[in-house]
Specification:
The protein has 419 residues and is α/β, with parallel strands linked by helices. 28% of the residues lie in helices and 25% in strands. The protein folds into two domains: 7-36 and 283-410, Beta Barrel (Lyase, Ornithine Decarboxylase, Chain A, domain 1); 105-277, Alpha-Beta Barrel (TIM Barrel). The chain binds pyridoxal-5'-phosphate.
Length: 419
Amino acid sequence: MMKTAGFYSKDGRYYCEQLPLVELAEEYGTPLYVYSKNYLLNRYQELVKAVNDPQSLVCFAVKSNSNLAILQLLAREGSGFDIVSGGELARVLEAGGDPQKIVYSGVGKTRSEQRAALEAGIATFNVESFPEFKQLDQLAGELGLLAPVAIRVNPEVDARTHHKITTGKKENKFGIPLNLIEQAARQVVELDNLQFMGLHFHIGSQITSSDPFERLGQRAVDLLNRLETAGIEVKTLNIGGGLGVCYDQEETLTPERWLQAVRSQLGSFEGRLLIEPGRYLTAGAGALLTSVVYYKPSVNKNFAIVDAGMNSLLRPAMYDAYHRIVPAVERSQQPSRLDVVGPICETGDTLGKDRLMPPPEPGDCLAVLEAGAYGASMASQYNSFPRPAEILVDQTEVQLIRRPETYQDLWAKERLIEQ
Ligand SMILES: Cc1ncc(COP(=O)(O)O)c(C=O)c1O
């Protein structure tokens, strides 16, 4: 596998691997998600190297990008998967993922979702509440199976990231409170159809400093000791995902630094370490290509109105997220300030504010970078715009991994009423 930059600029044109983005946009139309296969695989190998332990496992967080081909590529590399729904389970199995490498989080697992996961034989249920233990135990008993369980801990660690992507604080809905972990573990051990595997943490996403992870490690070691005293062995420790990436100029942690922050606290723990990275693998592996529909100079602002909006990439509208936006082909005119906005009838439908770039012409292609995570997987048909196609680039080869939607796709599941 060749080391690749994924997306980069050369001689005034932006590329994915060896192909100019502008040519991809011409061939496949816009809006279009473009992924770099080799960037994704390199990132996966970086994580495997950083974990550096054959009994441990990288479980890709499917929610960050659930395209079947992306899952298939990672499955072929031997990756595990972190899922949060029956739909994600079905996707991973369809893509050839190994059920024994699947871990399943989520506060609202239904009976039918639990049943499907039990029948598939997944590695671990990350259980988030006492009622969930009860339901899982009962179901496993009915099926004559043993359900492997990790307790998702709410560690009361503030990841100091955007409030909508912080998950490890007391007021968040996730996990079991710290003071109830021993009681929860005892219950798992006592219930006939559950098997206690260990503890699970996930404190939030896009974390760029090591101290929240150090605090996670401290909480973990404290609980390991308490459970050991209670005679309960922790075989696996899942530290979740959350490793941040660079969207603008932010300093980020390397995978080694991330794992070191946690491991430095763990003392003599020799069990299995699981990680659930999503964004780190897929964010930089993808870009969203969009075409300028109009350039609209206005009284206080100038707007580049493009054919992708919050329907194609929700992150700026939902999390005030910043994405770099670059012309696929540079223009030589003087740059000016403009907002890049979509066609959706919502004021929040902005992809980028106050960007400095030469005024674009209708038809110009822009690339929204680092859009591979929580991009396509959060896309919608709001305002009845079809969702974008997705393509995968491997050096000079391209594969269509999701066809563009048609208007018929918009109402394919709807029915006119009968008179
Ligand atoms: C339980 C769980 N694990 C892993 C992740 C992946 O996080 P990230 O994409 O920040 O690595 C998430 C995302 O929110 C999550 O909820």
